[in-house]
Amino acid sequence: MGNSGSAVKVCTDHQGGINWLSLSPDGQRLLTGSEDGTARLWSTADSQCHGHFQGHESYITFCHLENEAAFTCSADHTIRKWDVVTGQCLAIYRGHTSIVNRILVAKDYLFSGSYDRTARCWSVDKEKQIQEFRGHRNCVLTLAHYSSRDVLEEEEEEEEEEEKVSRDLLVTGSTDCTVKVWWVSSGRCYQTLLGHTGAVLCLILDAPNRELFSGSTDYTIRTWNIVTGEQLKVFKEHQGSVICLELVNRHLYSGSADRTVKCWFVDTGERIQTYKAHKHSVSTLKYHAGILFTGSGDACARAFHSRSGVLQKIFRGHKFIINCIQIHNELLYTASHDGTLRIWDIRGICKRNKRRLKKERSVQGRSSQKGSLSRLFNNKVGCMVQQENGE
To answer: Domains, the chain, ranges and CATH?
Structure first.
């Protein structure tokens, strides 16, 4: 059963709750965005704060970290780009008329979603709005991006020449209960995905399999074909809003306000595991090396063996909801509304899980060997019977 763990480091530099935590692609830095209106840059090598980004006039809702630049969005209606070395603000993207609650960086594009009911596309380098996506009847909460090259065969691409040049598409989820797919080049809506009866809180995209997953306050997860817009499956077992999703090896993990995480086999829609023990909503989750890590409104993070659902460890110390988690070099990072970033050593859990996986493979190998010998024996018996019968 799970046992409590103590953080190896507690970072208390922020003066307000931390709303988001982003890890750079190279794993060298972490970025936190806070209610105090600032973002901070942390080194994963020494866990020290190496950057303090100030300039927003209200709280930071979300942040995104690249290797050389950081991006933050805020309730002050703006998005900012920062130099990770100097801490200098490199660009301010203005245009939204309400809280900007989500950003996404892809190629040379910066996408944003806002309470002003629009999503927008910006040139990362030119500090300039390229496109506006208008059509939702309420705020845009979540974003995803893909290229039609990832999902369409050449003969299926019969769009306008202008759209064929770019082939980039933006997916938006809104509190108006819809998901929309847009051509980036023209701003035209390509698909409106109808079916949810509550706000769409989270999206996850599997472009190679042409699938999109959406989680909602209607307690369901829905799977869509992103080429045809067809609704493929509805996952219905949650008893509360679906807050977060993670997709790993055709297994979908969903965290909910019903205090559970569920694991679904995507190909059949079967629910194959439920992870219990949370005392409040599951706000964030992350799969790592056969272990499912969760953060909850009960101020605890937890580690579950992903296959068996057994609770491995409880990480106690935060005072309020854990909003985001990241994992790097067998360290777990948890960011909370209590304003702290906590760092936990998960080497012991990872090591135990590796031993367990090794043991399972060994048992499976022996079973497979026994099965082969059994088949060989049965084949021999079959041959003897055939010979005795003169066949």
So the answer is: 18-94 (2.40.10.480)
